[in-house]
């Protein structure tokens, strides 16, 4: 199975995706809408792709001008596919791949903060308490986009974090948060 990167430096290039139900790569239509909503904020941004899967979202960010991307993924099959995708795009110098769960990484990571965070946890295990911890990694005026099923309550907001956009695409919901200040 393949996923096509949409625009930018790698626009039109295909990356691998595991042919199983363990990951749910964000569809091209939703990724396009997501990046259209972000616009030029992606240029020069330091990006975190949490629950990275194939890396499609982070690699799209890199293709559109992000300065660097940190990918965090725990699934061994997805890790191998992600690493292969980074090599196939010759993007290793702008990428850090962390092979562990987001919750484990949060307990051991350095204090680096990000301009943009993409969080796309498994729909059957949204880990919203872990997603809430990611807010602490946003730079002032930083943006976090959560892709989730939209069922139930969202993550707990922290001081200075506000919802700035909410969009539904079939069974997927994209909620954008911003750190004020």
TrEMBL record:
GO terms for molecular function: methyltransferase activity; nucleic acid binding. GO terms for biological process: rRNA methylation. InterPro entries: DNA_methylase_N6_adenine_CS, RNA_MeTrfase_RsmD, SAM-dependent_MTases_sf. The keyword Protein biosynthesis does not apply. The keyword Transferase applies. Pfam families: Cons_hypoth95. Keywords: Methyltransferase, Transferase. NCBIfam families: 16S rRNA (guanine(966)-N(2))-methyltransferase RsmD. This is Putative Methyltransferase. It comes from Candidatus Saccharimonas aalborgensis.
